[in-house]
Design goal:
The structure is a single chain. This protein is mostly beta strands. The chain is built from 2 helices and 21 strands. The strands form 2 sheets. It has an 18-stranded antiparallel beta barrel. Strands 1-2 form a two-stranded antiparallel ribbon.
Amino acid sequence: MSSFRFTSCAVGLALLALCAPGVRAQQQDQNQQPQQTQDQSAPPIPAYRSPLASAADNGDADNPNLDPQKIIPDDHALAGAENLGLGIPTLTHNYWQPHVDLVSTIDSNPTVAPGQTGWSGSTSFLAGLDLRRTSGNSDLTMTYLGGGTLSNTGNASSGIIQGLDFKDKISFRRVSVNFIDQLSYVPGTSFGFAGLGTIQLPGTGTGGLGSGFTSGQSVISGSGQDVTNSFVTEVDAYVTPRSSISMVGGYSLLHYFDNGLLNYGNTNAQLGYNYQLNRTDTIAVSYQFSAFRYSNYDQSINSNTLFVSYGRRLTGRLAFQVAAGPEFAFLRTPITAGSATGTNSANTALNSVTEVSWALSTSLRYQLHRASVGLGYTRDISGGSGVLAGSLLNTLTGSLSGSLTRVTSGGLNFGFSHNSGTSLASTSAPINQTFAYWFGGGNLSRPLGRTLNLSLSYQLQYQNSNSSFCIGPTCGTSVLRNTISIGVGWHARPIAFE
């Protein structure tokens, strides 16, 4: 109870500080970013927001002050692994930037279990590093964040937090090679991960990777530790000044350490052809293959998808893409005739199902004068998020962020996912359990001097199903969770190096 009272007082003080009259705005960039050019007319980047965080997720603009004259145009292949972006800030020096955050959270359902209520408090300590380095033909960006969460009561356990976004692009005259890795190790579902306030944890969101190249974890499955990792290698060969061929190969995984859920890996590959219609518009055709395999369930899913894509880019202003086409999924259990392992050991007969559907992936990023908008929607066959042995997954995400005053910024975010089971039972009939999951919230942030930032956020998570599901000893058909977080962050000024 004392912890709850302390956190409530902290939230009240944060609201008072955020709503206080604005202090005198600083006339120059508070961080004095190394990539700043001699033209000082552009609005400054807030001191608490590293430009590398944008570079790590394709130059999106959580920062509403992007100047199109000072960013490098996006050059991601439409038929490649990454979503199109607005661009990244122009780099004149290599640099790194450390940061530390302390976040206090009150949670209405810390065990994330059906039908559970009872507010509880926790504290998260996080430290990280942003890095940007160009050398020769290599362009490397990295964002790392790590720490832990300590529960102030016995209602929930403590947890470890690790997140990483890594990308290294090596360019030659007619070929470029990209190595991309997104890792998250968190005590909960990574999609809509709550409890860190305004902090974007690397590796938990859709980030820069497109549909088919991530683990697709999108069902609330409890508060135990789990790891998701997606590694991709992409080779783009430029055939003519207007056309190129993209070849992508990668592997993603989802593994639970504290829950008896389904662990799986996805081997994926994609081959595509890109054609530049003009300076802003591109079209592409591609073929994508995914192979899901479970370590504790004897089922395999092989998915084949043909995409036709269109993309439009205006540097620093607009990034839009859409890809659609037929998807053919082949489900089999046991994986080979006569084998029997895992939870399906009683089934020695070979069962198989072919599912034909359509796949869609689209995203939009739009930069206004003082705000930025992001939207995304995907539909495809996924691994089932650990609770289903394969599912037809629909996800929708959106965000709106911008400057409310000269020194205060805010944002709104929401997301929705719908998983419909496609796993095979002892007969050839699919198991059609469904999970519908919503999250949404808002945040406020305000700099305190040149290197400190105060933030306040609220998030709602809700999930229901057409049949009862269990998280730990508790079973039910729905989960509801509210979290309120207050945080203080310190971000050092970028440190240049050769």
